[in-house]
Design brief:
The protein is α+β, with helices and mostly antiparallel strands. The chain has three helices and six strands.
Length: 110
């Protein structure tokens, strides 16, 4: 009986840990549905250091949006943070382009 109780506790802790992972919307810039945020896949992030992000990219008249999970340990995250600084969102504008990045830490917040 005691072994069964221990097994239940372990299963409960594992299920809590798995269900506690961040979920983000995921789509690539070539997906038209990504622009308006409809019909988008949901993905569970790999680790507890992950954030959801949205990257708005305009070059000339072309507009693209990318949504996904990103770990704070990735070099891509560091490069994005260099663009926007210490804030969780920001934009950088040049003559013919605009890049805006937003990070968030709630399920499906992107």
């Amino acid at each position: 009986m005691k072994q069964y109780f221990v097994f239940q506790i372990v299963c409960f802790i594992c299920s809590f840990y798995l269900n506690n992972s961040l979920q983000c919307r995921v789509c690539q810039k070539d997906n038209r549905d990504c622009l308006i945020g409809n019909n988008i896949e949901i993905r569970t992030c790999e680790d507890d250091k992950s954030l959801c992000f949205t990257w708005f990219d305009r070059k000339g008249s072309e507009v693209g949006i990318e949504r996904d999970c990103i770990s704070k340990d990735m070099e891509t995250y560091e490069a994005m943070k260099e663009i926007i600084g210490e804030q969780m969102s920001g934009c950088i504008k040049s003559i013919n382009s605009l890049d805006c990045i937003t990070f968030c830490s709630l399920d499906n917040c992107n």
